[in-house]
Amino acid sequence: MARLIGSISHVTAAEAAAELETTITRILMLLRENALEGKQLDGEWYVESASIACAKAHGNDIKTTKGCVSHCSSGCGCK
Fold this sequence. Notes:
4-stranded antiparallel β-sheet; 4 strands
């Protein structure tokens, strides 16, 4: 279930893992690498919903999430 942090929609790391068909550990690694955008609140990690949508649009090449910001034409909604 999405949660607003500031004015940005986020989901838990577990929900992001399910959405991207991967593990929570992989999500945490992607957050650490800045391949996904997220925040830690009260000891729990939350991933921006838009970041997940971008990762899904780029398939297995999730590291392009940050790189596609200015030139993405996939329609994923990258910032």
